[in-house]
Amino acid sequence: MTDPVLAPPLFTIRRLNPEEAAASIDALAEVLIDCVEGGASVSFMLPLPRAKAMAFWRGVADSVGRSERVLLVTEDAGGAIVGTAQLITDMPENQPHRGEVAKMLVHRKVRRQGMAQRLLAAVEDAARASGKTVLVLDTATGGDAERLYQRAGWTRAGTVPDYALMPDGMLCGTTFFYKHP
Question: Are 46 and 37 in contact (CB under 8 A)?
Answer without folding.
Answer: yes
